[in-house]
């Protein structure tokens, strides 16, 4: 794990986390989990979780959503100390578990368990169901052998399986039943907290509801607290009390589920929700198309993590009314310039020699044609593009980026946002637009995409 971290303002440092009526079980402060690459990329780590601060309240289900690769699983695993935190704290009932090791960590693990997405691969096919569910009891040397067997049989009842299943093998069960086995195993040591990592994504739709119902029943029966990681926003809306929206290792927004779904604050949440088909055709919701892919988590933007794709990105005064497609092209150009700046030239040359030409690093004329060929580019924009092109031809991407940022840059590219309370009730969003200096997110999205 790398120690390359920088301090960022967190909700704890703003005035938004001062509610007194909540019963916090897990308190996460400026948590970072970086993966080192063993030197392959010059020692630049993947910043899978890059400074998140939030809490999980006793007995609640907190949803964690976001695109593939944004760091959800890494965050869930770090909360359980299955990954080492690079920096920050995870306080579990007041104890910072990132500093636990050896016997203390082993003992603490009883409290916190995980259910994985894929019941096909997460169960050992050579063990019987009884052995699988009993394993955590064996590892923790729980009571007597006979008591363990009794406990496993009871757990099989609890999750809707039969005691006779004790001697069967996983391959004799369907996907839904296998997930029930995983859940039984998870509950063996009576944990307080369970990370559910996409627990129904691999299951048939017809079975998903059964497992969701089971998870809800178990939560009521045993007073469990869940972190529910999911892609499927409709499932999240159904089961979660609050939701945290993650992007590129950051929590962009967190708030009560219904409020977040009906009145999202952050442009990224708007974009995610916009991608869900609206079941009610009378509801008029903006359609926002997210362009491009998230940046490489080794090289996140220095300002807002979402700045390169944000549909509500703050623009310089002179370019408020610039055509949206042209802005998208300019954003892509900036990404390409950054990539070129990072790429080792010898690697680029070798790549060209192997594949003939590498379009991502084609000539500046080709790139401009691809990005702006079909668009009407105002002359003042064209003259800046020409200046950028001159620096690119001279292989001076840094200077090209300086020219770009001086002309087209804004606070979104230059400075990380801070968290702002929206609507009260612990609803917070990480965006520059939540200050009086800028038009608010709803208004700008309505103007640009309404
Ligand atoms: N062991 C690892 N070593 C290096 N990089 C990793 C490792 N595990 C994850 N990553 C990287 O960390 C980033 C976050 O991955 P993670 O699996 O946490 O995201 P995710 O949101 O859970 O994605 P998905 O929804 O696809 O499961 C990704 O860029 C991923 O490639």
UniProtKB/TrEMBL annotation:
PANTHER family, alphabetized: D,D-DIPEPTIDE TRANSPORT ATP-BINDING PROTEIN DDPF-RELATED, TRANSPORT ATP-BINDING PROTEIN
Keywords: ATP-binding, Nucleotide-binding, Transport
PROSITE patterns the UniProt entry points to: ABC_TRANSPORTER_1, ABC_TRANSPORTER_2
GO biological process: transmembrane transport
Domain of life assignment: Archaea
SUPFAM superfamilies referenced in this protein's UniProt entry, alphabetically: P-loop containing nucleoside triphosphate hydrolases
Region (Disordered): 1-21
Comp. bias (Polar residues): 1-17
Molecular function GO terms recorded: ATP binding
Protein name: ABC transporter ATP-binding protein
A Pfam family assignment: oligo_HPY
Family statement: Belongs to the ABC transporter superfamily.
Alphabetized NCBIfam families for the sequence: oligo_HPY (TIGR01727)
Domain ABC transporter residue range list: 26-273
Keyword Nucleotide-binding assigned: yes
Species in which this protein is naturally found: Natrinema soli
